[in-house]
Specification:
The structure holds two protein chains of two kinds.
Chain A: H1 2-20, H2 24-50, H3 55-79, H4 91-113
Chain B: H1 2-41, H2 44-48, H3 57-71, H4 73-77, E1 80-81, E2 90-91, H5 92-95, H6 99-113, H7 120-146, H8 149-161, H9 163-167, H10 176-197, H11 200-216, H12 220-236, H13 242-261, H14 268-271, H15 276-297, H16 300-331, H17 339-345, H18 349-353, H19 355-359, H20 368-374, H21 378-389, H22 395-413, H23 418-451, H24 460-469, H25 479-485, H26 489-505, H27 509-516, H28 524-552, E3 560-564, E4 567-571, H29 573-584, E5 590-592, H30 598-605, E6 608-609, H31 618-629, H32 632-641, E7 646-650, H33 661-675, H34 698-702, H35 704-710, H36 714-717, E8 721-722, E9 727-728, E10 739-744, E11 750-755, H37 767-782
Parallel strand pairs in B: 5-6, 5-7
Antiparallel strand pairs in B: 1-2, 3-4, 7-11, 8-9, 10-11
Helix pairs in contact in B: 1-7, 1-8, 1-24, 1-26, 3-6, 3-30, 6-7, 7-8, 7-10, 7-23, 8-23, 10-11, 10-13, 11-13, 12-15, 12-22, 13-15, 21-23, 22-23, 23-28, 24-26, 25-26, 29-30, 31-32, 31-33
The chains are: A mainly alpha, B mainly alpha.
Keywords (chain A): Apoptosis, Endoplasmic reticulum, Membrane, Transmembrane, Transmembrane helix
Subunit structure (chain A): Component of the oligosaccharyltransferase (OST) complex.
Membrane topology (chain A): Multi-pass membrane protein
């Protein structure tokens, strides 16, 4: 259906245009998120190849990647100026919370890595 | 006219700050009193009996805490216990929930490093009351997030006294629930706080509190299923917000990791069905978040196009994933759920497949009277609280309602889970009572204002303060008279708090008068009667709670008392028997008894047991059950193969103690018969009735349990009248051939027998000589005197 493909192309174009309008700091956080999820996918493929023997290591590796991705999303939510709920939250406080949560996450990861 | 108004406004602002500070101090003081109340109401057992550990499970926890305090945490983590489940042993480090023992161990270490010489037993006995005070404070915080300070104080006061919670946390009841309920409420508070504020800091704290809960109790699966249910509810009712994402997503990741850290849970955190709900909702949340994000980026028309595209692709992927998941789950016979969880979801599961779970009295469904015994007045305040939560509905109040509804279902399945219902009922009753007091006192204030209609012109800000003051709990002048009659101290404090506010509030009445025309105002007499009746209701509740704490729930089942004309009679037979065992047997001797007494035997008598309350190995328990149900020779063979030296039975027939082994005997038959088919339950029943009198079946009269319980029983009163069963026993005069009695306690409640060693067998011509010597040895054994009588 040419109309459908046209619509799809229009969709992707408008998505791209709207995304290009986001501020740079948010784009950096998005890049970090993509990196974390990509690392997680690489780990899953690796596990598929060599097997999941030290299961705790696999688990801690995957969950650390997904965990940092989730925390990056939370940081992005709190720092985004378009978000009216967080307009009186200073971005330094949001970043400090992000660092604290990451600290706890990585402490647990290091403990569980084996 | 502007000058006096601004000066009064400034004075009003300063006055309101002072009032707020005073209110805060009063609130803190009230909370302190509530904590003291929660602590002291649980001390009845220490006052009436002594500072001793109760029941069965706490003895195991006490023993583990002793080990921890003596040997340190690394030894504890790697401890393999060979004094129990002989010859299998038990890996303590990997099968115990360490939260309780680590908490008590930390408190003991802290207190001793401050040079306060408390023993481990004292710390263990008083851990539960301390944590119940903490739980009241956590309830205050949780209810404050849902409805406000007044409701919080009310809920905390109610939780401090609710009998259901008291029953599992008296001083001496050193069990997992003592700290687990505090962890549960605190985790819920942090979740709701994160939901309300959207702060990642509280999300981190939430995950850490969830970790503490996982360490403490197997009931943590309730949290990890309730919170996803609530998130789903919020999404479905259109209340998705970014705060919901911050509250839930980090909890899932961090929580799963932390749960996997605890050795008991390990990889179950990702592989069992109990946790799948959290992962499923995690995925759904991300899909919804993505949808909202894209909606914000695109125009509505393009968004529709995107939706059609995504739905067609997404549904296909979804089906594939769900099909794989269903195949994985369906391949396991229990569909991935553990036995305990299955028995909760399907109440008939345990009685069909797992008789051990079905035999525990705590796992039976509760009766209606037990609801009124355990949560009393709250049972009909809860529906009022539910209604009050809907006006207005917020995320926090919807969470509380969902918590209550699921807790009510699970409490209906298992009476032990009334404990999880108690905090929910307290929160909702606190909300209901606080709203009721709000409406009634506001009506009284309005009616009073109508009476004093000629008061001076109001200042603008004090009307704002009084409208904020009306959100606190009691706000009436008439309450000053009632406060002398009220029996609960916490209710007095909020009324005193507002006596000062009323003086300034009176000026603002006419201005508020117009605002309040739209609010509900009841006639004066109705409001006064309403407040009176509510206070009387509270009085009934307090009286019932104190009675329940003092009479019903404070008995340490290790010591029994009874009142007679001569005064108080104490039955200390259990400790007598364990002391005898520890002083008169070798350290390596093995003691066999039914699994109820295993923990107490290892903790107090310090002897190796065959089976204990952990009940992790059904076949081993069935072996002991079979032995108890078999005739003497077969039982001797079984016990000899397990290296058993002593057999312990509990018998209540002389004094009328109903929880003895003869009453539990049918469960031994059922569990033994479940593994060894030659034990058949109908063999022990006459016409379907369980009896031990002259009408009993010969299998029953010859089995080991009957013989060990009733050996020489006829010597007590000549007729062998069993006070528990209420009739005379069937077989009165018999001798034991393979066992010998070594100890019977003062009231015949615990009886200990020793396995007779195998006789030297000489074959052939010496058989005749041997039979002669055999009779002489049995006569000698029968005449052996009990050294303690």
């Amino acid at each position: 259906m040419p109309k459908a493909t046209n619509d799809a192309k229009l969709l992707i174009q408008s998505l791209g245009k709207a995304y290009a309008a986001t501020p740079t700091n948010l784009k950096i956080i998005d890049l970090y998120m993509v990196f974390a999820v990509a690392t997680a996918l690489i780990q899953v493929v690796y596990m598929g190849v060599v097997g999941s023997f030290p299961f705790n290591s696999f688990l801690s590796g995957i969950l650390s990647c997904i965990g940092t991705a989730v925390l990056a999303v939370c940081l992005r939510i709190q720092v985004n100026k378009d978000n009216k709920e967080f307009k009186d939250l200073p971005p330094e406080r949001a970043f400090a919370d992000f660092v604290l949560c990451n600290l706890v996450l990585h402490l647990v990861i290091m403990n569980f890595l084996g | 006219m502007a000058e006096p108004e601004s000066s009064t406004a400034a004075a009003g602002a300063g006055g309101s700050r002072l009032r707020n500070a005073f209110g805060g101090v009063l609130c803190a003081f009230t909370l302190l009193l509530i904590g003291v109340l929660a602590f002291s109401i649980r001390l009845f057992s220490v006052i009436k009996y002594e500072s001793v550990i109760h029941e069965f499970d706490p003895y195991f926890n006490y023993r583990v805490t002793q080990f921890l305090s003596k040997n340190g945490i690394y030894e504890f983590w790697n401890w393999f216990d060979d004094r129990t489940w002989y010859p299998l042993g038990r890996v303590i480090g990997g099968t115990v929930y360490p939260g309780l023992t680590l908490t008590a161990g930390t408190i003991w270490w802290l207190v001793n490093s401050l040079n306060i010489p408390l023993s481990v037993e004292t710390v263990c006995v008083f851990t539960a009351p301390i944590f119940s005070a903490n739980a009241s404070w956590a309830t205050y915080l949780l209810t404050k997030e849902a409805k406000g300070t007044g409701a919080g104080l009310m809920a905390a006061a109610i939780l401090a006294m609710v009998p259901s919670y008291i029953s599992r946390s008296v001083a001496g009841s050193y069990d997992n629930e003592a700290v687990a309920i505090f962890a549960l409420i605190f985790t819920f508070y942090l979740y709701v706080k994160t939901l309300n504020t959207g702060s990642l800091f509280y999300a981190t704290l939430n995950a850490l509190s969830y970790f503490y809960m996982v360490c403490s109790w197997g009931g943590y699966t309730f949290i990890i299923n309730l919170i996803p249910m609530h998130v789903l509810l919020c999404i479905v009712t259109g209340r998705y917000s970014s705060r919901l994402y911050i509250a839930y997503a980090p909890l899932v990741i961090l929580g799963t990791l932390l749960a996997a850290l605890v050795p008991v849970v390990g990889f179950n955190a990702v592989m069992t069905s109990e946790h799948f709900a959290s992962f499923l909702v995690f995925i759904i949340l991300h899909v919804v978040a993505l949808v909202y994000y894209i909606k914000g980026l695109l125009t509505p028309r393009l968004f529709k196009v995107a939706m059609t595209l995504v739905i067609s692709v997404g549904l296909a992927v979804c089906f594939a994933v769900v099909a794989i998941l269903v195949a994985l789950v369906a391949s396991s016979p229990t569909k991935g759920w553990s036995g305990r969880s299955l028995s909760l979801l399907d109440p008939t599961y345990a009685s069909k497949y797992i008789p051990i779970i079905a035999s525990v009295s705590e796992h039976q469904p509760p009766t209606w009277p037990s609801y009124f015994m355990d949560i009393n007045v709250l049972a009909f305040l809860v529906p009022a609280g539910i209604i009050s939560c809907f006006l207005p509905l917020s995320d926090a109040s919807s969470f509380v309602v969902l918590y209550l509804v699921t807790a009510v279902y699970f409490s209906g399945v298992m009476v032990r889970l009334m404990l999880v219902l108690a905090p929910a009922a307290c929160i909702l009753s606190g909300i209901a009572l606080s709203e009721a007091f709000n409406v009634l006192t506001r009506s009284i204030k309005c009616q009073l204002a109508k009476l004093f209609d000629d008061s001076p012109a109001a200042s603008g800000d004090s009307s704002a303060e009084s409208s904020s003051a009306s959100t606190s709990s009691t706000n009436s002048a008439k309450n000053e008279n009632r406060s002398e009659k009220s029996e609960t101290a916490p209710k007095e404090k909020p009324s005193k708090k507002n006596r000062k506010k009323d003086k300034e509030v009176a000026e603002s009445i006419p201005a508020k008068h117009k605002k309040e025309k739209k609010l509900l105002v009841l006639p004066m007499e109705a409001s006064v009667m309403g407040i009176l009746l509510l206070i009387v209701l509270g009085g009934f509740y307090v009286v019932h709670c104190v009675w329940a704490a003092a009479e019903a729930y404070s008995a340490p089942s290790i010591v029994l008392t009874s009142r007679s004309r001569e005064g108080l009679h104490v039955f200390d037979d259990f400790r007598e028997a364990y002391a005898w065992l520890s002083h008169n047997t070798d350290v390596d001797d093995k003691v066999a008894s039914w699994w109820d007494y295993g923990y107490q035997t290892t903790a107090m008598a310090n002897r190796t047991v065959i089976v204990d309350n952990n009940t992790w190995n059904n076949t081993h328990i069935a072996t002991v059950g079979t032995a108890m149900s078999s005739p003497e020779k077969a039982a001797w063979e079984i016990f000899n193969s397990l290296d058993v030296k002593y057999v312990l039975v509990v018998f209540g027939g002389l004094v009328g103690y109903p929880s003895d082994d003869i009453n539990k005997f049918l469960w031994m038959v059922r569990i033994g018969g479940g593994v060894f088919p030659h034990i058949k339950e109908p063999d022990y029943l006459r016409d379907g009735n369980y009896r031990v009198d002259a009408q009993a079946t010969p299998t029953m009269l010859n089995c080991l349990m009957y013989k060990l319980c009733y050996y020489r029983f006829v010597e007590t009163d000549g007729k062998g009248f069993d006070r528990v069963r209420g009739y005379e026993i069937g077989k009165k005069h018999f001798k034991l051939t393979h066992f010998e009695e070594v100890f019977t306690t003062h009231h015949w409640m615990v009886r200990i027998y020793k396995l007779k060693p195998q006789k030297n067998r000489v074959r052939g011509k010496l058989k005749k000589l041997k039979s002669g010597s055999k009779t002489s040895s049995t006569i000698a054994a029968g005449r052996k005197k009990n050294p303690w009588q």
